[in-house]
Amino acid sequence: MFASFGPILALLGGTAFLLIGSGLHGLLLPLRGQMEGFSTASLGLLGTAWAGGFVAGCIIAPHLVRRVGHVRSFGAFAATGAIIALLTGLVVQEYFWIFLRIFTGFAMAGAFMVIESWLNERATNENRGTVFGLYMMVTYASLMAGQMMLASGTVATPTFFMITGIFFCLALIPTTVSAQASPRPLHNVSLDLKGLYRNSPVAFAGCLLIGVANGAWGTLGAVYGARIGISTAEIALMMSIAVIAGAVLQMPAGRLSDRTDRRFVLAGAAGGAAVIGLMIFLLAARAGTAVIALTAAYGALAYTLYSIAVAHANDHADPEDFVKVSGGLLLLYGFGTMIGPLLGAVLMAAWRPESLFLATGLAHLALAGYTMLRVSRRAPVPVEERETFTSHPSERALTPEGLHLDPRSEAVAEAEATQEPARVSNP
Fold it and tell me: How many CB atoms lie within 10 A of CB 69?
């Protein structure tokens, strides 16, 4: 058993190093930028630039990998991340950072796609579910570890920029020393907007709006924490616990959506996230413990929404369209994360730090309202015809290539090989 999991564990090790570096750098930049007096608009653009680069990487990276191969491509992507991390420590200038952040997003998308392709090649029908679960665990644990590293020092020195570069370089080792053959070429990524909307208007609008809210919070949450005066350690804990709380609540919320109309669960969670955001805005808490508790409750609801929206879309889609639909919704989510930081920055600049939650609240209220409107327009899929809910790794790391790790994708691959309709059974 260990022999079959050996190459997979090595790749997961590379994934962990990559995500630790990405999580550390993603939180370090807004904190250092805030300390340096960067404008709120520039801090928001850091998130927009990264998201734009990530979406572009998901579309372009398969063509690059096809030309030069997986190992060379991954080496180039990881090295690019390391170089940019060091450059941001050497040259502290807001517009330069925004420009570099585009390439960081592009490089991370390409690196994640290569690793996910490698994991998919090593996974078998018997262990695919285990590999997918391990990938989820590594994703959340590594992102949290990277963010929590900031609690051990100060962002005022170049130290954490150098540490980020080291982790990106460490990610190279498992792939470059591996004797395993390269996997098949990456799958091309396409976006059929009309088809996605016809399949599920709720999921179409939902993934875009969820991206707006999560993009605003993920980029500017650290800025909010710094401006209300909590410590760097508390900011790192706040950002990490929000994501972990969402990961923990995904399965209970998903199982509830298996037994009722998923749209009620989606609207309820979105409405709840909006209410908690409004509470944070009105209470204007300044004590670290209170802020962490409130944002954990916010994250527990906000980070369940994406998986429920995707599950609702797949209820309406043919099983053989699972990867196509899920991949398209992931790109829509990416477009939303480009909008959210700008909206949050505008509101924070106009009022006070807690106005970040007006941006997330607007997105969540729009999602809840539109979802309930659609309840009266379309009947739910009968419970016995739905797929069982499956949670997703953090959207910050997941690419369309990673969807092929999902056990449901195996039925699609078999159908493509035999030219027969895919059938996905519910466990």
Answer: 14
